[in-house]
Amino acid sequence: MENTIKFGTGGWRAVIGEDFICSNIRLVAAGILELMKSENKTDKPVIIGFDRRFLSENAAKWVAEVLAQGGITVWFMHRSVPTPLVMHTVKDKELHYGIEITASHNPSEYNGIKLIVDQGRDAPLETTEKLEKIIEKLSDVKYLEFETAVSEGKIIYLNNPFNKFLDDIISLLDMDALRERGLRVVFDSMHGSGTYPLLVIFHTARCTIDTININKDAYFGGLMPAPSEKSLNLLRDTVVKGGYDLGIAMDGDGDRLGVIDRNGRYINANEILCMLYYYLVKYKGWKGPVVRNLATTHMLDKIAESFGEKCYEVPVGFKYISSMIDEADAVLGGESSGGLTVRGHIHGKDSVYAASLFAEMISVVG
Known about the structure:
Blueprint: E1 7-8, E2 11-15, H1 22-38, E3 46-50, H2 56-69, E4 74-76, H3 83-92, E5 97-101, E6 110-117, E7 121-122, H4 125-136, H5 146-151, E8 155-157, H6 162-172, H7 175-181, E9 184-188, H8 195-204, E10 208-212, H9 233-242, E11 246-250, E12 257-261, E13 266-267, H10 269-282, E14 290-293, H11 299-306, E15 311-314, H12 318-328, E16 332-334, E17 340-342, H13 351-365
């Protein structure tokens, strides 16, 4: 039988009940375990996070059971967390691997497994290809019951994994400008896992922040959990009717951003990238180039040129963007689908930081 477990740029994604089933999820976990053994990277814990999709927490436990049986210490969550937090923890704690159970912005019938590697990066193609070959050869998968693994100290619940993640983002922001401006914001979490960290940051910044769609809903209100223009009609109406300064939306796992301005206009990802790059260089005095993929606006090239800087073009896939940010010491990099990251932060997309930085820009620039 042909192996149906194939990894794309955002991990393995499959339809729940068809290919995203317990046996396949444990198979992927067993493959990751063998991959770690082959690379002699079994000496550090693996952090496992999960979003709010149907079966996400169960799947996270199934993965944890396999790794725990294989002698790997697992760091587990009491609640759902956005993908950027897992990436940040892998980087901050210098772990070899992290895992997030998510299908990101895909329809509700999908779920998946995202593999994060050293320095908090998306797993590169060579890693996922190697993993696929390992999985093809596996048959018998062993696991240790979750509660047993917890009682034996092989699975450890993290008390508050958000602390360092939040503190690091707050340290990068001009909190005085945010507090002085006192923005009125509506946040649409799209029923995803980005609610808690964003609310903490905006409350710390003394912003007025109201929320919509923050309840857990496996069907995402019948919409795609992607912050596209057609998905944000309720956010647009709420912003305009309530006279808010800003509307912010994130996808299901908190790595894609959408913005509605005070007039109800949808600000697309290309515009967000241009505005933030301009703000960081012009107003914050940062120096350096910018990175985009080949499907993203060439306006970034023109803005970079106006500052005497360069815009680097890379293939589709965020790992190429993060690699080029490092190589070129770029200010930021992103893609037209709504993901971006900024120099000095994590090596993956983070809409918690991006949304906070956008709010800072509005506060400073007006």
